[in-house]
Specification:
With about 325 residues, the protein is an alpha/beta fold. The chain contains twelve helices and twelve strands. The chain folds into three domains: about 50 residues, 434 Repressor (Amino-terminal Domain) (Orthogonal Bundle), CATH 1.10.260; about 130 residues, Response regulator (Rossmann fold), CATH 3.40.50.2300; about 130 residues, 3-Layer(aba) Sandwich (Rossmann fold), CATH 3.40.50.
Length: about 325
């Protein structure tokens, strides 16, 4: 405890606890000689201030929160790495928690962030998130929230997103360029804004540039669901000649199904996805994908947070541009 440590220093030096405390803080009322003695003894006794008590007094923790659906996801892993890197350079630490896509866990985690007095929070909402009250409680305590990737469909918050509509459009145009006639589009949970935006853009691009394309849409959000859907459709009579995968989890399930049925990519079927970049490189041929970088998102999100912490609270939505990375799968 800080008090007992200060007391020990004061007893050894024969001065008051308040004098010791002020000497450690370089208070101008304390002589340089006293400051030197106190600091030398503090070093010898391995004195460390009680940071929690300091936080209570100053309301400054230099701690930033990160809340994501899952940390065992390469996209969020690279996002966290980018934020942590910049946070360290600016004197902040990070506290990372995951919701596991459960609103109840998300709410409990938000309570812990408030309890630990984070100075700001990066949040990617869960599939179940509907009530924004737990997030508003942070705002009421002057704790800025920057929503990332899966952002809340409400106004008045900072949002840092991937260029979701652009990413889906680029993927659709790549498929159209290859003159594919039967396309299976696999997206994430239909409740999420990121899914709604990407799916709408994907459909709109085909309606505008290739209206005769037979387009089938489904929403398998996990590897196993993607595997099941892909196997079922690929075994059908009118097998698609191209599959679009909205994310890496879907891509993994689809590639499992393709390998199980011994289909050749791209001869038997073309594949394209939206990805952070790692998983498409693990296949032969490499998968063509639209890059959505978690690392770039993290860098941009931290810049937004820094702006908030410097008292610029004007809500803003910014995006990370999408790029087509050619593989040999389409």
């Amino acid at each position: 405890m800080q008090q007992s440590t200060l007391k020990k220093l004061s007893e050894v030096l024969g001065i008051s606890i308040s004098t010791v405390s002020r000497a450690l803080k370089d208070h101008p009322d304390i002589s340089e000689n006293t400051k030197t003695k106190v600091k030398e003894l503090a070093t010898a006794l391995e004195y460390e201030p009680n940071n929690y008590a300091v936080q209570l007094r100053t309301r400054q923790s230099n701690l930033l929160g990160i809340l994501v659906p899952s940390i065992d996801n390469f996209f969020y892993d690279s996002f966290i790495a980018a934020v942590e890197e910049d946070a360290r350079l600016h004197g902040y630490s990070v506290m990372i928690m995951q919701s596991r896509d459960k609103a109840q866990i998300e709410t409990a985690n938000l309570h812990l962030f408030r309890k630990n007095m984070v100075m700001g929070l990066f949040a990617s909402i869960s599939i179940e998130t509907e009530d924004m009250t737990p997030f508003r409680k942070l705002e009421e305590q002057k704790i800025p929230v920057v929503f990332i990737d899966r952002v809340a469909e409400v106004e008045g918050y900072h949002k840092v997103c991937l260029a979701d509509a652009e990413a889906a459009r680029i993927a659709a145009e790549a498929i159209i360029e290859k003159k594919k006639k039967r396309v299976l589009g696999l997206f994430g949970h239909p409740h999420l804004s990121i899914t709604k935006i990407r799916c709408a853009s994907f459909k709109e691009t085909f309606e505008k540039h290739a209206p005769k394309t037979k387009l089938t849409i489904d929403y398998p959000e996990t590897i196993n669901e993607s595997k099941r859907v892909a196997l079922e459709i690929l075994k059908g009579k009118n097998r698609p000649d191209a599959i679009f995968c909205m994310g890496d989890q879907i891509l993994i399930g689809v590639m499992y199904a393709i390998h199980k049925l011994k289909l050749k990519v791209p001869d038997d079927i073309g594949v394209i996805g939206i990805s952070n970049g790692l998983f498409p490189t693990l296949y032969d041929p490499k998968i063509t994908y639209v890059e959505t970088s978690g690392f770039k998102l993290g860098k941009l999100a931290f810049a937004q947070m820094l702006s908030c912490l410097r008292n610029d609270h004007t809500p803003e939505e910014v995006t990370v541009e999408s790029l087509l990375i050619e593989g040999g799968s389409l």
